[in-house]
């Protein structure tokens, strides 16, 4: 499996963040959520894996998790682990801060990976 990188923005301040330090962007034909904590950006699925809550409408907790606004399940921003214990997994995307901008990685399935 290889990763294809898409440029998100030149700088962190070029992104239109909501007051809760999250937002939704469209990249590679997909809507994804972004969250910022300090100088770090995290990218993850648009919708909650439980019942489709819009995660960017939730909040970022002090312990580094995102809390879904619908039923308050929490997910680790780095690895998608469901830290509130319900057994779900949030899809996350790798983020790279490069000299020429911020990039998000998407897994590319090769023909061979389907065998
Ligand atoms: S939809 Fe997110 S916790 Fe239920």
What does this structure look like?
It is a single chain. With 115 residues, this protein is an all-beta fold. It has one domain (2-110): Rieske [2Fe-2S] iron-sulphur domain (Rieske Iron-sulfur Protein), CATH 2.102.10. It contains no helices and 10 strands. Strands 2-3-4-8 form a 4-stranded antiparallel sheet, with no helix packed on it. A 3-stranded antiparallel sheet has the order 1-10-9, with no helix packed on it. It is globular and about 35 Å long.
Distance between the termini: 12 Å
Q: Any low-confidence stretches, pLDDT <50, length ≥5?
A: none
Share of helix, binned: under 10%
From the alpha carbons, calculate the radius of gyration and give it in angstroms. Answer: 14 Å
The first-level CATH class is given as Mainly Beta
CATH homology superfamily: Rieske [2Fe-2S] iron-sulphur domain
For the record, the CATH architecture stands as 3-layer Sandwich
Count the E strands: 10
Q: What spatial form do the alpha-carbon principal axes imply?
A: globular
Which tags fit this structure?
10 strands; 3-stranded antiparallel β-sheet; 4-stranded antiparallel β-sheet; mainly beta; globular; Rieske Iron-sulfur Protein; binds FE2/S2 (inorganic) cluster
